[in-house]
Amino acid sequence: MTTHRTRTLAAACLLLATAGLAASGCSKSEDDKSSAAPSDSSQAAAQQQVTESASAPAGGGCTLTAYGAPKLDLKNAVVGFSQSEKEDNPFRIAETQSIKDEAKKLGVKKLLTTDAQSQLPKQISDIQDMLTQGAQLLIVAPLNSDGLDPALKAAAAKHVPVITIDRKINATSCKDYVTFLGSDFVKQGQRAADAMIKATGGKGQVAILLGSSGNNVTTDRTKGFMDEITAKAPGLKVVAQQTGEFTRDKGQQVMEQLIQSKPGITAVYAENDEMGLGALTALKSAGKNPGKDVKLVSVDGTRNAVQQIVDGNYNAVIESNPRFGPLAFATAQKFYGGESIPEDVIISDRAYDESNAKTSVSGAF
After folding, report:
1. Sign, Cα dihedral of 225, 226, 230, 234
2. Closest by CA position to 312, among listed 258, 363, 266, 358
3. Rounded to a whole number, what is the largest CA-CA distance in the chain?
């Protein structure tokens, strides 16, 4: 883990130098509910996203000419950011703040921000409204992988490029959107499974708290986990799969039900930290000993979840870094500079367990 993080930090510095970006964390504003910015530059660098694949293959990718969009100087541009879910989730708080921080840092003329409140029709109308207000570039965190067609068509009609982040859409790259920036969600599921195998010794009964339906994050994190468990730990049986909708309250509610219906559960894989923290509350209320009697592994990397590892109530967290601001705007600058952008720009994520949680919790979001 230490070697991996050393390589990651080195790669982060190289990426930032190439993009011409200074390291920055998620600073607070008067209405920001996220964690405070890091206190030193090394911690800020640790928070940056690092790409595994940032270049298009020879002859591939999307260019400004192929997309049919006009050249644009971001300092004289109107940029729209469409957030998908309520900002009572640390991931969404950090994600939105990162976009705002980077837009301010680059001197973007005007940043429009919207919040779809987990409603697909609202996200569609939000995007259409931003286009009406003159948005010349759109950064979109899709609610679902399907359903945004009316918004994408409206953007295409105005020749406005769309960069998608954190969830992939089922559409045609370099036609409906430029690129997807995000994690390898299948790999996240595999890494969560490996952490679970380590925590359980490869034996026991596992419940999976699924994310919301209709998006590739849930599908891929489930596939990665199930495939890895099947291949490496046949003694670890998945006895329940139920959606917690990526929310803490729903995760707690589902866990309360599973404690009654599946009393033999010895491990829980939550497909985001909020559901995992909800499950932890339910387990404690039922007199269980989470982290010991019932192993807990989740995905995201929120400070609250990582702190629970430090406190002994949690076993592992696989990071899904939400700080898309620097990468999103660096990608936009490359695109408008004439570079070819790959269909997918995949970032690498850290992992937290008892070996590094205490020293790394301050870098979580």
Report:
1. positive
2. 358
3. 62
